[in-house]
What we know:
By secondary structure, the chain is mainly alpha-helical. It has a single domain, classed as Farnesyl Diphosphate Synthase, CATH 1.10.600.10. Helix content is about 75%, strand content about 0%. It has a two-stranded antiparallel sheet with strand order 1-2. The longest helix is centred in the middle third of the chain and has 31 residues. It is globular, with a radius of gyration of 21 Å.
Amino acid sequence: MHETKRLAGLIQERIDDAVLAHREALGPLGPDIAPLLDEAMGFLSGGKRFRAQFALLGYRAVRPLDVDGPVDAEFGAALDAACALELFHAAALIHDDVIDRSNTRRGRPATHRGFAAMHRDEGWRGSAEHFGVSGAILLGDLLQSWSDELMQRACEALPDAARAGRTRAHFNRMRSEVAVGQYLDVLEEQRTEFAGHEEQLERSTRVLVYKSAKYSVEAPLLIGSALAGAAPEQEEALASFGLPIGVAFQLRDDLLGVFGDEELTGKPSGDDLVEGKRTVLVTLSREELPANQRRIFDDLLGTDLDADQVAMLQLTIRTSGAVEQVEEIISRNVERATEALRGAPVRQDAATSLLRLAERATQRAF
């Protein structure tokens, strides 16, 4: 617990320093940019920091890292890489909220809603909604740029080009996969009908893997381990652990998106139902429904649901048995990941910490 708190503090401090440095450098642009940078600072405050922690544990799986010692050049490079992932994650969330037309994030207005409210409060001309979306897109782009700068600084601190090249390759691939995975998610929501069950399950799983699962756990582990100079067999072992944990993590998130307590998740309960997400949970639910009930379910999914309709769909999913099926899939993936670490060529103290963090990531309550 002490180690987790110290790392969380160091990560937040590193992020704050990066934002403040950019703020100072951008000072000549004048006071009008203050709301944009204030939103950046606010959005980057707090959070679970799973990706940063997995990156640091990926590093420690290969090379010792004294988290209680001074932040020397080696530790600093690892922190920069971890923080780069947090900035990228923040950018992805801001853009995701625009795409999903979400109203809230982490218990506060989504970034585009906040900028739209500022437009209305100031009585500016034009569309408040358009200004909000524009501001959010630009802030997401800005955070992606800052993320890249941090990752580049981490790579430049390494003693040899091979480690830097491998780290950068993992980071670049992660960014491409997330963008394409997000596109596949958007595409699924636009299709007029669900595919047959097996095909739909394959589609839903592909979105889950590439939009979220790989970049939540596997990519941070590979980036951290490459930064530390991992051998191919070490990367392979960490990937074999990371992907199933990432899948379990996202399946848990899908459950939270349907049944989550708004006070805990920061988003309305049933938000994924309103957005029409064709998740594995939804796909499994539909397969168990009688034809007439499935038609009603399909007609309601992705519409402007009221509280009673959300509750009805939640009950339909629960009674279908899909929740139990998803819980079973989560358990199987955690078991697969745990088995991958047994005898893996990684440092055992890091392996123990990875299992603890994986439990936290996949067993969040709803």
